[in-house]
Write a structure and sequence with these properties.
alpha+beta, two-stranded antiparallel sheet, globular
Length: 202
């Protein structure tokens, strides 16, 4: 499974930009689902789910990862071909790119909210009210920074390398492990929402 897949055709962009498909993709990026499972999870008729699965599969955004026979019926398990998606610069002139990206992000935010609601109690506990982040069971940051586009891109590469390192660490250790959900979002804005901190005189 790829870490990132580039959306390279207009048809792929249309396929992944549909609001329902974007919501389905949040689940299919996490693991394999049948059409029936997605239908029950999203409370949407199975026929409608299967139609959208076929559109995503036709555009090589998802794939069948396994098949199981149950009561004489072959169940197909679908999964995203990548953990995340980016859009080719060649598609940028299309005005739909902006709305498609926003729709994907909206779905990601909704999915993250559901994960917060269903997380175990200990996920958000602080040990002894410690101010040391190492003693917290979670990470939470909201901040605004100034950087050039080149600096932002350089930092983004470091971030993804760090996430790859974290994923490999979990595979290598034999210690008891917890499951951690990460949702990160960074984007350009027009102005500061937080009051800008004044730099201290050196």
């Amino acid at each position: 499974m790829k870490q990132i897949m580039t959306i390279e055709t207009y048809n792929q962009l249309k396929a992944i930009g549909d609001p329902l498909r974007a919501e389905m993709m949040m689940y299919l990026c996490e693991g394999p689902y049948t059409g029936q499972q997605l239908s029950e999870t999203l409370d949407i008729p199975r026929g409608k789910i299967h139609y959208h699965l076929k559109e995503l599969e036709k555009n090589n955004i998802i794939e069948i990862v396994k098949k199981e026979e149950k009561n004489g019926i072959v169940q197909k398990f679908y999964r995203s071909v990548a953990n995340g998606f980016t859009i080719s610069e060649e598609l940028l002139p299309f005005h739909e790119v902006d709305q498609t990206t926003r729709q994907i992000i909206y779905s990601m935010i909704d999915r993250a909210k559901k994960r917060v609601q269903t997380a175990p109690k200990e996920a958000f506990e602080k040990k002894n009210n410690s101010e040391n982040p190492e003693d917290w069971g979670y990470m939470s940051t909201a901040m605004e920074i100034e950087a050039s586009e080149a600096q932002f891109k350089q930092w983004t590469n470091k971030y993804f390398a760090l996430m790859d390192e974290l994923e490999k660490m979990g595979e290598e250790t034999e210690e008891e492990k917890n499951i951690y959900y990460f949702f990160n979002l960074g984007f350009q804005v027009q102005e500061f929402a937080f009051k800008k901190r004044e730099k201290k005189d050196s």
